[in-house]
Amino acid sequence: MVDFWQRASFFPLLVLLASLLLWAVFGALAGALFFALLMLMGLLSHLRRLAELEHWCVASDSTRVPDSGGLWEEVFSRLNKMVRKQHEDKEKHAAALQQIEQATAALPEGVAILDAADHVEWCNPLAEQHFGLDGVRDVGQQITYMARQPEFVRYLTLANYTEPLILRGTRQDDMVLSVKVVPYGVNKKLLISRDITHLERIETMRRDFVANVSHELRTPLTVVNGFVETLQDMPKLDNDMSRRALQLMGEQTRRMEGLVDDLLTLSRLENSLNTLVEEEVDVPPLLQSLYQDGMVLSDGKHTLRLELESSARLHGNAAELRSAFGNLLSNAVRYTPQGGEIVMRWSVPESGLPIYSVSDSGIGIAPEHIPRLTERFYRVDRSRSRETGGTGLGLAIVKHIANRHQAHLEVVSEEGKGSTFSIVFPAKRSLV
Length: 432
Ligand code: ADP
Known about the structure:
Layout: H1 2-26, H2 28-58, H3 71-106, E1 110-114, E2 120-123, H4 125-131, H5 143-146, H6 150-158, E3 165-168, E4 176-184, E5 188-195, H7 197-232, H8 240-270, E6 279-281, H9 283-298, E7 303-308, E8 313-316, H10 318-334, E9 341-347, E10 355-360, H11 382-387, H12 394-404, E11 408-414, E12 418-424, E13 430-431
Parallel strand pairs: 7-9
Antiparallel strand pairs: 1-2, 1-5, 3-4, 4-5, 6-8, 8-13, 9-10, 10-12, 11-12
The structure holds adenosine-5'-diphosphate.
């Protein structure tokens, strides 16, 4: 700064000195005229440089700052450096942006950025394909103008993005997408879409295969079981070994029949075309009837109690609810040793969420098994499940039925002490 003032004052001081000299030799007028003339020239020179600077600022494509001399030289040289640095930075940013664009274009998923009001800010080529967008034309458009499926609109409106949305028929009728929204920054959203048409096809094939095999097995099993029962009833069966063999054959065919029935039930529940037929279900009488079934199943070995804390009815499917409620009760009976206590409870606590629960004082479940109980064929104790006629599919069926009613299954258990299995329904299903 000091350096600047030194250089800036050099010219005026020189002119002043020369003017004073002229004043001394030729008089005051000559000195003043000389001073004014040179100062005017200095001013004109500054104005010219200023004009050059302005011209450079206005010319948008100029990358090089004009050459200059004197005081302005340093200013121009610094400006020159700044502009060059700015250009280099710009080129670096452009290269980085291009790389990001190339990377997102290569992503196997569609990605779109939405603002707070779901307007498209940017999207990659796969998102263009999935939602029928045009990455240039549709910027600023609301995404729901392009993807109008009611379930997609609802998904965005409800803003509950914990689970991905399975979306069918976005563009081509047979395309199935898994769509997920990830909120970020201030009210921004990342819309990620994945084409799962192929996976869905495989899943449908698997389901159809299981359903067909189960269906095909049903008739031969019924025939074999029928013959086994007939043979068992034959009076002339005096050989102990034959009797034992027939008894085992009978048990195993009945087990297989149970398995086939459960597999068919699961297939039916999994079939997306099989929508839930809803009705008003009077839960208390349903539980009374299940309680009677439980008494028969327990055969006097347990103390069974039914606690009806609410008379609420439920909006749902009676047959499916009966199957789910019955499954939990039969598990409690099967996994509770003789003398144990089992309590069936129906309540609507203050939260307003209707709950059906079955508590038992049975063998309980170690914590590491609990998250896997609803997997098909997952059993904590394989032999106990078999001995008591289990198929390993009961809780998978319960989970499916719960899901179809937007309910969820909760398990609280302690090994050696007992378990409580609860189905918690959404408040909107309760009909008081
Ligand atoms: P399963 O036909 O084998 O009973 P489920 O799907 O109904 O099949 O149950 C899965 C597993 O969860 C069972 O094999 C058993 O180990 C465990 N289980 C279910 N209910 C209970 C319960 N009330 N007490 C203890 N263990 C249970």
